[in-house]
Each structure stands twice: as C-alpha cells, then as structure tokens.
Amino acid sequence: MSFDGKASPQPGLTFVQSLWAMEDLPWRSERPWTLDEQLARLVEAGYGGFAVDLGASQAPTAADLAAAAQGTGLTATVMAFVPDEGVLTDALKYAATIGAQDLVLCAQHYTLDLDKAAALATRWHGIAAREGVRLELETHRNTMTNDLRFTAALAQRLPEDLELAIDLSHYVVGAEIPSTPTAEIEGHVAALLQRAGSTQGRVASRCQVQLPLHHPASQPWIELAQRWWKDAFVQILRRRALSGSNRDVVFLTELGTAPYAITDAEGVQVSDRWAEAALLREWATEAFTQAITEAQAV
Questions:
Q1: DSSP classification of residue 269
Q2: Is this prediction's pTM over 0.85?
C-alpha cells in the first residue's frame, strides 16, 4: 500500500556499487580483478547496478564498459565532475553508450551566489532531462555543494524534481562535525535529506573521510551514519509516496581505494573494502526497514 492508503507497489531498496570502489580489489591480492571480474562479482553478490566515476584513474571507456556489462542485468549510473556544459555533454554521451539513465553530478562551479548556483544546477538538470537522464546533484567537497550551510540553503531554491545524491561523509570530515552533532548541524542535514534522491554509503569522522569499519573507535561515527541513512530513506519514501512513484531507493556503496582508504606504513590498506561494502548493505537494509515504518507515520 502507498502511504495514502491506495494500492501500489512499495519502493524497494536497490544496491549500486561504485566501480571506483572496485579498484585494487581483492584485498591484499597480487592481481586485481579485471573489469569483467568486477561485474561478475557484483552479479554474484546481488547488486542491482554499478556506478562509473568518469574521474577515476581506472575508469573504462564507454565502449569497453558497455561490452562488459552486456547481459549482466546490472543498471548503470554515471558519476561526473562537471565544470562546464562541454564536459556535461561528454558525460551524457558516455551515459548513452552504456545505457545509463542516471547521472550523479559534482558541479565544479564555484559561486557564493545562491541564485546563480540554483540557476546553473537547474539548467544542467534540464539538459540531462532532454537526453532522458535523471540528474542528481551530489553533496561533495570541493564542488558547488562543498559547504553544508550553503548547500542547505541552495536546496530550497532547486526545482522539486532536481534531487540530491546524499553523501554526508564529505560534510562530517569537511566541517569537522562531532559524532554528536549540534542542533544547528542537524537542522541543515535535515534540510538536505528532505531533497534526497539517493544515498551513498561511507562512514567518516571529523578528521577522516573513510573509516575502517572494524575498528572500535569507528563505532560512534557508524551509529551517526546509520541514523542519517535511515532519515534519508524516510524522506525519499515520503517523496516517492507523494509523487506516486514506486521507483526503488538507491544506496550506493562507495568505499574508495587509497587515499580514501587508510593504509599502513607499507602502503597496504588496513581493511577489506569488499567485505565492508557487504556490511554497509546489511546496515542499510536494517535502516530501510526502520524507515518504512517511520515514513508511514505521517
């Protein structure tokens, strides 16, 4: 049932894995997985799709990725850092080649003028829509959405159908948010989550963007991330219900290779990011189950 009592399918939770997060895997192996092996692992693990970051050092060509993904049943998402419309056009061409209907955009355009920022994001959103691509604006450091407070205000100026790809790890480390955030911080985060279209999985602390999940010292930050993921799911589900959409909610596992991943003195990453991605999926599933109940309590 939808939240208004009318019969309709309930949106589910779909897991998408970043191909950038597949770089240098498997952990402590002498030979990394090939692109074909990466996609095969995603299918075996039950992922619904993959996301390709065009700025990653090992990003495949569109032709190579299209060929490798054929027949896998995985959906495709493009992630791009975009300074201008020429780069946006290139990203949309890449999306067309691999059959991607979603573009997560990090806008490399810097202004303190909220109206100008909103106008630019709206124009780029329209360009993508004309190509049949859903564009989400990502919350990411060193982009137009670098600052939490600016982005919370910007979100109020965006059109209703331009949603945010929420990655709060960037704000936790970028704004040095404590594990028990202030009411002011919580208010800004809540404003962003009200415009959420998807959620990205990574656990940060105020001094490190990607924590090892097995370290006891990471626990307070894990609990904060889990709560915010649940709150994001609640808002997405409510927006889906209001719009009558049963499109699945996307959770992107994006545990990046070094320098995001912490390494030891020998340069070896201290945790198995593939195993940790599975753990993120478990936590996100629990959060989504909780969110369904909360979203219905309107």
A1: B
A2: yes
